[in-house]
């Protein structure tokens, strides 16, 4: 045997292997390395968001006006409440996760099972909430007109509320005048067979213009943020002129091309960053489920250590940590 | 590090009896911080809207509170408090240094593009 095993003379020394230089096991340290690199990925995305925002600092959508919905409370403007709820759910599931890790240290299989289960439920509620948030965002609420230059013009009127004059948004669908000669969508069977066209918007610019002309109280609001931190409202004459001369497309809701809330980059970043985070939560839930079943089957009991729960816990907390930043930069700042 | 938890937070101001208790304590603290953020975000006090170092005072408060939350999530939920200093520094300083660098470069450049778009003699018109 001696002749086949090379002796390097480093046995028992620092680099001889078998010791744990940072006091952490291999698996845990690798999880930390992964977390650092993933943190850098997310910072890259958020910094790119900051770049675009600084580029259009005078016209970026105001988050409080975009995310105002709460499920089952239709028609009420409650900015932030729902995201705050989502944040709380995720922090709560982080707590159950860390309790599972703690129970694992005490080799308490029943408690680990219970807390892992609660963590999975919390993650599922969060992913569901995010799906709802996306659906609401894609659906849109008031509609707007996109100009030739790609800017967004929204509609509203001044109303007196509690003795104060405030600008209230008005939905496009509430004031358009239906004009029967509207264009039909092009289809391959009744035109050029090699050309295709997506769905046409519900209304044409002309219909919006007629509606705007018929309602003398309506005004147009541009993207530009004024000194009071509010979007600039145009005069009546200017409103009519802008829609007539520059209006190009009626936009309802948001997708990767157009966005009724303002700069289309806002929607792009929203979908990309919350989507990437949501994907992390989803994969976290799936990994949690796998570990959950391993716990039930007694794999870790036999192994004599619940370190696997600890490792997946690190990942889960990291997802929570990222959300804390996404929450700040998308909804608060 | 399995059974040796450091049980004090706020530099020893608050000391918990067990790890489980510490977890709940940190949860309460994080919830309070989030609640403060939400309340400030909804009411937006006029005093905090003045510009401090190129950004609204309120936004600075949000960012600082976020970093505070991140600290307690990492230190207490991810047990960074119980790890060796070398591991802690390796993870934290690598991330902090690279992220600061990234943020500085991108925000600087974003501000520059804004200036190009909005200067007196800008060639790009965005008035329609």
**Largest inter-chain contact set:** A-B, 61 and 52 residues
How many H/I helices of chain B? Answer: 3
Secondary-structure-based class of chain B equals mainly alpha
- Output the CATH topology of the largest domain in chain A: Four Helix Bundle (Hemerythrin (Met), subunit A)
Task: Describe this structure as you would to a colleague.
The complex is a heterodimer of chains A (333) and B (128). With 333 residues, chain A is an alpha+beta fold. Chain A has 2 domains: 187 residues, Cytochrome c oxidase, subunit III, four-helix bundle (Four Helix Bundle (Hemerythrin (Met), subunit A), Up-down Bundle); 108 residues, no CATH class. Chain A is 53% helix and 11% strand. Chain A contains 9 helices and 6 strands; from the N terminus they run H-H-H-H-E-E-E-H-E-E-H-E-H-H-H. In chain A, strands 1, 2, 3, 4, 5 and 6 form a 6-stranded antiparallel β-sheet that branches. In chain A, strand 2 and strand 3 form a beta hairpin. The longest helix of chain A has 34 residues. Chain B is mainly alpha-helical. Chain B is elongated and about 65 Å long. In chain B, a hairpin with a 4-residue loop joins strand 1 and strand 2. Chain B folds into 2 domains: 83 residues; 44 residues. Helices cover 62% and strands 6% of the residues of chain B. In chain B, helix 1 packs antiparallel against helix 2. In chain B, the strands form 2 sheets. In chain B, strands 1-2 form a two-stranded antiparallel sheet. The model of chain B has no long low-confidence stretch (mean pLDDT 86). Classes of the chains: A alpha+beta (333), B mainly alpha (128). Chains A and B meet through helix 1, helix 3, helix 6 and helix 9 of A and helix 1, helix 2 and helix 3 of B.
């Amino acid at each position: 045997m001696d002749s086949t095993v090379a002796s390097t003379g480093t046995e028992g020394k620092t680099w001889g292997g078998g010791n744990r230089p940072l006091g952490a096991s291999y698996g845990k340290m690798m999880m930390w390395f992964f977390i650092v690199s993933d943190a850098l990925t997310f910072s890259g995305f958020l910094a790119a968001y900051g770049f675009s925002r600084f580029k259009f600092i005078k016209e970026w959508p105001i988050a409080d006006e975009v995310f105002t919905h709460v499920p089952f409370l239709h028609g009420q403007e409650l900015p932030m409440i729902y995201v705050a709820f989502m944040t709380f759910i995720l922090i709560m599931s982080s707590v159950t996760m860390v309790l599972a890790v703690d129970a694992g240290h005490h080799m308490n299989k029943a408690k680990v099972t219970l807390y892992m289960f609660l963590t999975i439920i919390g993650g599922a509620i969060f992913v569901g909430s995010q799906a709802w948030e996306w659906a609401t965002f894609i659906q849109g609420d008031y509609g707007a007109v996109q100009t030739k230059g790609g800017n967004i013009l929204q509609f509203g009127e001044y109303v007196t509320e509690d003795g104060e004059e405030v600008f209230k948004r008005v939905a496009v669908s509430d004031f358009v005048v239906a004009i029967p000669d509207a264009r039909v969508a092009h289809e391959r069977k009744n035109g050029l067979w090699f050309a295709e066209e997506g769905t046409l918007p519900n209304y044409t610019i002309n219909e919006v213009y007629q509606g705007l002309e018929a309602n003398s109280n309506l005004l147009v609001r541009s993207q530009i943020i004024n000194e009071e931190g509010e979007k600039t409202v145009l005069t009546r004459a200017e409103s009519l002129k802008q829609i007539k001369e520059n209006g190009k497309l009626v936009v309802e809701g948001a997708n990767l091309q157009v966005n009724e809330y303002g700069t289309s980059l806002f929607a792009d970043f929203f979908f990309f960053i919350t989507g990437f985070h949501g994907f992390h939560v989803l994969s976290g839930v799936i990994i949690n489920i796998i570990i959950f079943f391993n716990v039930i089957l007694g794999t870790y009991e036999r192994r004599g250590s619940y370190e696997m729960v600890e490792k997946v816990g690190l990942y889960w907390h990291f997802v929570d940590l990222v959300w804390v930043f996404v929450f700040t930069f998308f909804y608060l700042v | 590090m399995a059974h040796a938890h450091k049980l004090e937070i706020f530099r020893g101001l608050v000391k918990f009896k067990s790890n489980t208790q510490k977890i709940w304590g940190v949860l309460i603290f994080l919830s309070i911080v989030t609640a403060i953020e939400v309340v400030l975000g909804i009411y937006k006090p006029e005093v905090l809207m003045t510009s401090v170092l190129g950004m609204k005072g309120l936004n600075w408060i949000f960012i600082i509170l976020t970093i505070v939350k991140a600290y307690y999530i990492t230190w207490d939920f991810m047990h960074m408090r119980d790890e060796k200093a070398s591991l802690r520094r390796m993870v934290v300083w690598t991330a902090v240094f690279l992220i600061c660098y990234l943020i500085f470069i991108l925000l600087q450049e974003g501000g520059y593009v804004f200036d190009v778009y909005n200067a007196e003699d800008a060639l790009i018109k965005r008035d329609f």
